[in-house]
TrEMBL record:
Keywords: Hydrolase
Gene Ontology MF terms in the entry: hydrolase activity
Residue ranges of every copy of the AB hydrolase-1 domain listed in the record: 32-131
Superkingdom to which the source organism belongs: Bacteria
Protein name per its UniProtKB record: Alpha/beta hydrolase
InterPro entries, per the entry: AB_hydrolase_1, AB_hydrolase_fold
C-alpha cells in the first residue's frame, strides 16, 4: 500500500488479490469504516471526489473500483452484482475489516443491496444512492436505451474519468460493454431477499433521477428498518457526481450531513 497526497488530502492506495482480480482501493481518514461503491461506467473519483474529503473528516473511508472499472482489471467473465458484492467482501477480509457501513451509488447501490443480502455479517448500516432492485424501478425507455447502448453515447466526463486513471485505456470499451450487458440482462431482486435485509438503511434518490420515486418508496416499505430521502436534482447530483457538476455547484447541496446523521444515529 502506498501513501499519496492529492490536493492536500493524504490517502493510502493499493491493489488486493480478489477472486482473480487485482482490485484497486483507496483509504482516507480515520475512524469507523465507510465503504464507497461506485456506479456503472465510473471510477472512485467520477462518483465520489467531491464528498470523500467531507466523509474523511470523521470516518475511515474505503473506496473501491470494481471489475473492469478504473484501475481494476477485467476478468474473463460477465459482470454481476452478486460477484461485485463477493469481491467487495473479499477485499474487506484482505484488509482485515470485520464490519463496515456501505454507501453505494447507482449500480453501486445495487451491489450494496447484494452485500447486505449475501454478507449480512459484514454490514452495519447501508446507504442506497439511486439503487435499482426491480426492472420497473426505471422508466420503460431505459431498457430500450440500454439495449442500443454505444460507447460514443457514454457521457464524456465518464470516458475522461476512466482514461485519466486506467492503465490500459482500451479497457474503456470492455467496461462499457460489460456494464450495458449486465443492465440488459438485469433480473429483479426477489422480494423475500430485499425483506431479509436487517441493516438500518438510508434510501436516497433525486426527484429528477432515473430511478422512480415509486421504486424508492417500494424499497422503503420492503426494508423494515429504512429511511427515505428524495432530494431535488438529478442522478447523483446530491453527491456531486461528475456529470452533474456545474460552475455553481456548492458543497452545501451535498447530502453528507444527512448521511452522517443517519450513520451516527444509535440503532433502534
Amino acid at each position: 500500500m502506498a501513501t499519496t497526497t492529492n490536493d492536500s488530502l493524504t490517502f493510502k492506495n493499493g491493489y488486493s488479490e480478489v477472486n482473480g482480480l487485482k482490485m484497486y482501493f483507496e483509504i482516507y481518514g480515520q475512524g469507523k469504516p465507510l465503504v464507497l461503491i461506485h456506479g456503472g461506467g465510473s471510477t472512485i473519483q467520477s462518483n465520489f471526489e467531491k464528498v470523500i474529503p467531507l466523509f474523511a473528516k470523521n470516518r475511515k473511508v474505503i473506496a473501491v473500483e470494481l471489475q473492469a472499472h478504473g484501475r481494476t482489471n477485467d476478468r474473463n467473465a460477465d459482470l454481476t452484482f452478486e460477484q461485485d458484492a463477493d469481491d467487495v467482501a473479499t477485499l474487506l477480509k484482505n484488509l482485515k475489516i470485520d464490519k463496515a457501513d456501505f454507501f453505494g451509488f447507482s449500480n453501486g447501490g445495487t451491489t450494496t443491496l447484494q452485500i447486505a443480502i449475501r454478507h449480512p455479517e459484514l454490514v452495519d448500516k447501508i446507504i442506497l444512492g439511486s439503487a435499482l432492485a426491480k426492472r420497473n424501478g426505471v422508466p420503460e425507455w431505459f431498457w430500450g436505451f440500454m439495449s442500443q447502448a454505444k460507447l460514443e453515447n457514454m457521457p464524456e466526463q465518464l470516458k475522461e474519468g476512466y482514461k485519466k486513471v486506467a492503465a490500459d485505456t482500451n479497457g474503456l470499451q470492455v467496461m462499457h460493454d460489460r456494464d450495458a450487458k449486465r443492465m440488459v440482462n438485469f433480473k429483479d431482486i426477489p422480494d423475500e431477499q430485499i425483506k431479509s435485509i436487517k441493516a438500518p438503511t438510508l434510501i436516497i434518490i433525486g426527484d429528477k433521477d432515473v430511478i422512480t420515486p415509486e421504486h424508492a418508496i417500494e424499497l422503503h416499505r420492503q426494508i423494515k428498518n429504512s429511511d427515505l430521502a428524495i432530494i431535488p436534482g438529478g442522478h447523483g447530483q446530491y453527491i456531486g457526481e461528475i456529470t452533474t457538476i456545474t460552475p455553481d455547484t456548492k458543497e452545501s447541496e451535498f447530502v453528507v450531513p444527512m448521511i452522517e446523521k443517519f450513520l451516527n444515529k444509535s440503532k433502534e
